[in-house]
Structure formats: structure tokens, C-alpha cells
Amino acid sequence: MISMAPVGSAGGAAKYFAADNYYTIEESAEESIWYGEGAELLGLAPGEDQEAQPGAGKGKDQNVPGDAEPEENALGEAEAPGGEDGAGEADDGEKDHGEKGAGEESKETAGRVAENGALASPERAEADGAVFDPDQIGGNVGGKQEIPPLAEEASFNPELPGGGLENGVDTSAGAEKLEKMPLSNPTGKVDAGTFENILNGKLPDGSQVGEPGKRAVGMDLTFSMPKSATLLSLVGGDTRITQAHMGAVKTAMGWVEANLAEGRQKIDGRAVPVRTGNLVYALFQHDTSRALDPQGHVHAVIANMTRMPDGNWRALHNGEIWRNNTVISSIYHAAFRDSLEKLGYAVQLQGKHGTFEIAGVPKNVREAFSQRRADILAKATELGTATKQGLREITKRTRDDKIAVEDRGALTQEWKARAADLGFVPEQLIEQAKVSANKEAGLLERGVGAIEDGLKGARQFVLDSLQKPSDPLVDTALKRVMMTGPVARTQLATASAIRILSQREAAFEVHQVTKTAVDLGLNGVTPELIDKRLIELTNRGELVPGDNKRADNVVEMVTTRDALETEAGILGEIERGKNGVLPLVRPDRAVEVLSGASKERPLNDGQMAAASTIIASSDRIVAVQGLAGAGKSTMLGAVANVLDFEKKPALGLAFQNKMVADLKEVTGLEAMTVASFLMQHDALLTGDHPQRASKSRDMLNGAYLIVDEASMISNNQMHALTQIANVASVDKLVLVGDRKQLLSIDAGKSFAVAQAGGLATADMNENLRQRTPELRAVAALTNVGRAGNALKLLGDRVIETNDRVETAAEYWLNLPEDERDKTMLFTSGRETRANLNEHIQTGLKDEGKLKGGGLKLTVADRVDRTREELRYAHSYQPGFRLEVWTRLQSVGLERGEYRVSRVFQNGKVEVERNRKRKAFDPQKLASGAKLDKLNLTATKEIEVHEGDKIRWTANDKTRDLLNSSIGRVVGIDGSGVMVERGDKSVVRLGMDDPMLKRIDLAYALNMHMAQGITTDKGLVVMGSEERYLSNQRLFNVAVTRVRDDVKVITDDKEKLGRQLNRTTGDKYSALEEAGRLDVDKHKIAARDPDKPFDPGSLEGLGLADDKLRAGPPSESKPEPPRQQTPAKQGNDEKAVQPLSLPEKSKGMEL
Length: 1150
Prior knowledge:
This protein is of the alpha/beta class and 1150 residues long. The chain is built from 36 helices and 36 strands. Strand 16, helix 22 and strand 17 form a beta-alpha-beta unit.
């Protein structure tokens, strides 16, 4: 794993890192060496054509006393928990430092740079948007652009034709045109004096970078070995591992230098990032934790300087390094895995970001040599905290000074004795690895025979793939037979990475493709080979570079042919439906009709405009954009009354079953999930079942389809809905939602794309939910993306605490009972929700509110895997449950639930069902599947008592038990559990009832579950360090749920405000990233909604004309003007009497 931290002071860092023989591996020739193109340019290190000579002597300032006191704040207060604290242990909770954090957040959340050139914290100003030019749509897409060939060391960078920059900055000049400083340090070894000078910005020639005393000095990347590798290297004595580890660090840092090193250059009066390709950094090997456990790790200390293309040295713009910490981690782990396998070791992938352990080192041994980690967890248990932020605080506060090692030999012997006491003899595993490696070496020594064997192995790998489904993103199997194994595996890994990313996003960062591909663990797959493959796929038009507005022409984003086709297809279907139907009610009569339909709850102007658009528009597809609390439910109730009176067939659709139930209650309409609807009517799109298609046409012809919470509908689902609407000639497809709230889980923001592309839309902007001026102001600010300002406006309603879970639980438990029912708890993530639920349950037990001794249950816990990830064996773990939703002939699995019993090294997975075991190869699952056919769950233990509030985590529609709906345990006896549903009816679950595995505590809800809920009061629990989860959309959902009062509980108000301001929580649009449509960036000129959307030339992308061409307008009356309420005065025709309609039950306001 890696961790990152700013370096607090140059002097402290010099004492800590560069002290001679201080805390470094004995007799290492590379314990403190300068590296990087920048170091070579400064003469601090020999270049590739000059070999370093570590033994040639030491610098004059090298001899810092060996007993020098390490400066505690050398790395600054922001130091993240890293390898030397035992966090590299693969089975501890800190190994994924930055998980869902800097490496996985959107590109808008990197670092910002102070005016004085200081290094960035993990923040970044929003990138510039594209300029809409319909004439350029597709102009450089589909493989038509000329992309220079990729050099062996190059990164993916398909530059625009021309090479130079319009503004006069020519990055093609590069530093190679400029002279290097004389080589002053032939050994490359770091001495304390020079190290301190460099960190302070003082160059060897005496020049100064930045203003002394007012500049940040550098950053520290710590690369920590997996504990198993540490034990074999430092306890077992396999020095090959130490050398391989340093090689992996060099590989990762080389990638960082080539892809993430940037400076800022003024262009047209603005400081913009420019890639420089050079860093100045030093590597330091350390081998123990603070508790003197073996813990091999390397510090890469990067100085705050880089040489710009014009030859000037400037401050390093390090935002991309901060933001891509998990990418760096994955590249480092991949390089280390590959080297260890060559050394004869078998490795096992563990967790995220490519983390792994060497097979054969038992878990209990790894844990026993992680004393520092054990101390942190013990302190956490004592304090009653389990959050990552709490663990980080404990790590920082309990950190002791490192202990200097007086007798390293004695320490090593102590380690060996501890290992022996545990029954672990590392030498045995090392010898086995050497035997395995020697066999491979023997093959190579046999010359031609070895080459033939190697080719045979590569061909066998590819021949095996002939048995697997064809893949449009890789060459044919016959072509791959002629490739080397690494090249063939790179094709497969890159294709899988693209599918993994494209299931969740319509566009994605190039670096994330690299990360995802190497994380799959296929041998020999490197960033360089991935770059080459990306260039090939771009030239073929399978990948399309994002609209490039960087000064240096670096391509940061890509989208796919399929994503562009889908979004263009959505807008094409909308155009096809323009003026395609007769209005249900003439526009001049709409207000009168709706007034009669809403006697009980009169509509305001915005509601009236929206409802009129639905019943009086001549467009087949229309939208209602309504802010949270704008009264969309009331408006839909009135529309439902009109449809009922007109005996118009109508069906409600929503993203999930809980929303379906709410929609039924609000409108009285029949309703179902979007997924069920699409499955029922898929014959209209496939053409495979003519009889089913005919039945669907008869059912839907002339019907009204009303989609609620449309922002949560993915691109693929929206495309299918709009196609069905036109093919089946429905009278109206109504999309109702709020583009500012939560988006779909899968790729796209289709509701926003549809509106941006010209969909007829009625806006509902009046907030009817919040009942105080302060909360209305807070809601208004969040609706326009100013969440940080909204947080400030809340004032003392924001509570700062070191343990937000405990504070939130205590606050809620201290409320009077009647207030508890009115106050909902909202969290930003699953971990916080689980901890908060446990705290509250404990408090209620202490109060005596929960009865009985409780029932321990083993319940299912969702495992987040994409369809493509389920094709890889490392996604499965023994004990997981595999749900198969339809018969899978390719792998021989029948529908049902299986338990994963074993995962084999050869990539197969063994599952068990009804005491029968079966092994299958997940690679034989079809690639590119559009529907989920498999689902993985882990298990966790919970305890329920009579009185506990629970929620369902799966559906049982026959008993009206719906995913995310709430219940309360009202009884537990020997035969089962009684649960009261929302309608106060009670259902009994026997002890063997499968739904007992599908419950969880529900005192706190994720904000993802909260959309559509209304409550009087709310407690919002968010952490400033949750960089992915603390975003504007989640905050918007949370604070707009409440009518009267909301409090926010966080660790740091100021940091949370900054985090919210820079992190929107948006998803990507393929058309927007390709520069073809303004959706959310608001940097492209607004298009005329009266003109059909024209995506321009998409030649080479396979976009058939019929996907884009709008049908001829039909003879019908025009729709009411957008955003205007139809006049309340009738025309000369006789007025129609208001409708007298049956009373409808009304539900909650959305």
C-alpha cells in the first residue's frame, strides 16, 4: 500500500530521512539515493548512461549524528497513517488508505495551489469546460485523428494535430533541449545538507525556487510491503524481495514522473497546469515499524520543484499526485506482484488497489507481527470508535518516537524466534520459491527449446480463450495466438477495465483504465502495454478522447463508442416524438380541467405549468424538473385524477420498489420498477419474440407512462424507455425528477442529458417543504451548488466532534421519545450507518426500550461488483453467497443460491449447493452483458430485539416486503420473528425464512436511501475526510428532506465546507465530455430548444442514421410554452365545467 503526507520542514526531514545509518536496512546500496529526471537535470544523480557509484564516497554534509532526535512534525500534522505504523498489513482496516477518497473521486477534486507556489493539499479547482460547436461533433472521433506512435516509455497522450499550443507555449520543446547542470554527485547518494537545500528550493547553482520560508517543501509517498513479503525478506532473509520491492517503487515513481508531474504556467493571464515529465525525489529504505516489528517500506520524498518546458524551475503542481494516490498504489502493487512471481512466489490478490499477500504466510503470523496495528485497534475498542477517521486520529495521537536500533542482529534473531514460536519457518517457503524460480531459469538456459516452451505457454493462454465468449474490445483469438502472452493478456485486461468503468460511468479518466487493468492481476500487464492498447482502440474508434482544453494537449478523459451511441440515441428518440401525439386536453382548457382535478389540494403556478405540460403537450416525451420539496407528488396526484376521469391507461415507473410503493400511494396508479417494465417489454426492442412484441404494443398503445425520480435512471434504461415509447406509440412518457439530486448507479445522467438536449421541460422551482426561512435559504443554496455556503448558514446547527458517530447517537438518544420519531438520522456511507445503528441499539438496550435477550442473525451484506468483475476469480471469497438469477449454461449453473467454498489459483471458483459442489470458470461468462445475472453477498452478524427498527435489504413482493422499506420487530419466540410493516400489519418469519437473512438495523439511513423521504427534523452525519461521499448531491438530499430543523454533525466544519464546494457528486456524460453538448458544466453555448438536436458527424462510430433522425411532425396542436402557466381565462369557446372526480389518497410530498 502507499500513503501520502506533506513534509513539514526541510530541516526535520533531513534529520529524519538523511541521517547516516539512521533506521535503514544495513548494507543496502540504495538506502538513500536521488532519482528522477529532475534530479539528473540538477546534477544530483547520474543519468541512464552513467552508473551510480554508491561506494565512491559521501557528501561533506552526510555525517549527521546517528543518534539525532527525529523531528516529530517532520511530516506535518496532515501525515496519513502509513506502512511504518503497521497499516500495510493486508487484513487490517487501514490498508486501503484513501479508499473512496483521493484516488476515486471525480477529476474536479484534486489539489489547489497557493499563490506562492506551495504544494497542494488534496484539492483542486474545477477544470475548464468545453465550448459547444455542433460542426465539430465527431470531427476528431472514430479513429480519424492522427495520433503519433507511442514510444516505449510514453503514456497515453493522443495529442491534437499540430503539436504546439495556440497561446505560444510549446511543450514539445521539452527539457531535453536544455543543458543539464554539471554532475556534482556521481554516487547519487543523498547527503543531509544537499537534501535540506533542495527541499528549501535552493538549487546546486545557487538559484532559488519560490520564496524561502513561505513555500511548502515537499511531499512523502510511503510504499509499504505486504506483511507477508516483509516477513520473508526481513525475517527469512530473502534479499531478492527487498531488491524487487525497490524495483517496484522505482517503476511506480517513474510512472508518476511521466504522467503526473506538473507545473503551472501563465497563459492569457491564467495559471494553468502543464505536464513537465520531471521530478526531483529521493528514495529511503526503512525496515521496521515504531513498535519494532518488521515492516519493509520505502519513502519517496518529492521536492517542491520541477523544470518547465521553457527551462525555468518552478514549484511543483502536485494536485494530480494527491488525486491519483490509488492509481499509484495499483501500479506499484502490480510491479511488485510481477517481480515476486518471477522469484517463484505465488501471490493472492486481497482487497482493493491491487493489494496482495504471498501465499503460504498464515494470517495469524501476519497479525502477530503487526503490534502497532493491534495497539491502534485496542485503543479504538477502548474508546468505542470504529470509523476510519477515528482510527486515523488514534494513529496520530498514539504515535511514539521511533526507537533507534542498537543491535540489528539481535532484533532479527528476536523476529526469528517469534516466528518459530508461531510455527512459521520462512526459510521453507523461500526455498520452495527458489526451486520454482530455478526451474524457469533452467528453461531459459536451454535456448531454443525454452523459447518454444514459452511460445507454447503463450499460445495455450490464448487457445484457452477460444473456449470463452468473443469480445468486441479484443482482437480475434486467432490473431492473439501470434502475440506474446503479456500483449494478449493486456488486450483482455484493458477490455475488462473499460467494461468495468463504463458500467458505472459514461466517460472516465485514462489513468483509471490503467489502474483497473493492472488491478485484475494478469501477469505481465504493464502501464506501457496498456497505453499502447489504448492508442490502438482510439485509432479504431472504440475509444473517443475527451474534449481537450489543456494547454499541453494531454488527454485526461475518454468515452466509448457505445456510450456516445446511447446518449445520442436518447436525444434522437426525443426528437422523434416531437409533435407526435394529440394532446389529451387542449392547452386552453388545461388550467380549468386541472383546477377541477385538484380541489382538495389546489396547484400553485409551477405545479399547474407542469401538470399542463403533461396533459396538453403534443410531444410524446416530456419532463418535469422539480426541486426537492416543490410538490411533485401533489402535481402528479392531480394528473392521475385527470387520467382516471378520461379513462386513459396509465402506469407509474420508479427506480426501486420502495419508490414504486410511494408512487402508488401518491397517485393511485398501478406502478412497477423500471427494470421490471423493460424486462416485460424487451421484445419491442429485440425483435426476437413477435407475439410478445405485439402484446406489448396492444398494452402500451395510447398509454401514459409516468417515471418518478427520473434522475436515477441510467443511460441504458432511458434509451430503452424512449425507444419503447416511440415503437409502442404511447401517448406520453413523462419524466419527473430533480437533476440536482441523486443520479443513477449505472452509467450516465440521462435526465440531465435529455433536458440539455432539448426535451420539453416544465420547471417547478417553488419550495413547499421547508417551513422556516433559514431552511428555505439552505435548500436554495444547495440547489445552486453552494453547499459550503449552506453549511455556513446553518451556523451553530453544525456540531464539530472527534467522534461524530458517538455524538450523533448521544444527541438522538437524549431527545424525548416523541421527538425521536420526528428526527431521522442520515449518513453519507455504509460504514458510518452501521456504526451509528449499533450505537443507538446499545443505547436503547441500556434504557430498557428493547426487550428480551435478542436474536443473533447472520444476514447478507451487499458486495459491490460490476458484471465484468464477476468474470474474475479474485472477486469471489470463501463464504460469499452467489445468487444466480437465471440459468447460465456457459458455466453450468442453475438458478438459485450457492455458497462459495473455494477459489483456486487457476482462476476457477468452487460453489456449493444442496451439499453438491461444482467448480466453474467465471471467464466463460459472457463479456459485455447488459443485465445483471449474478449477485454476490458477504455475511455479517447482527442482533435484533423486540422493539428494534429494521429495514428490508431485498424484495419479497408476495408479502409486500420491499427493499429499503422500514419495519419494527414486535415479537421474537422459538418459532420465529414478528415484524410490523408500515401499514401496521404484522408478518411472521420462521427461523428458516430466507427474509431473516435480508434485514438490517434502520435507526440511521444512507442518504442514497433518503431520496423521496420527508421528515420534520434531521441529523446529518458527514465526515470531511469522506472525499467521495461528502458531496453536494448527498448534502442536497439530506438537508432538503426536513421541514423544520436540521443539524449537521462532522469532524471539521471548515474542511467539510471546502470538500462540499469542490465535490459535486456529478456523473459524466459521454456527449458532454466529448465536447458535443453542455449538460452541467455550463461552458458551452446554450442550444436552441426549438431546434432538433444534431449530434453532427458521427461517422466511424457506427451510429446508424435511424438512431438520430427525428420523425416527421404530425398534424397536431402545439404544446404550451415551456415554463409558462397556461392562461386561466378561456377563449371564445364555451368553458368546460370542472371535473368532479373521486377522492384520491395523498401521500408525502417529494
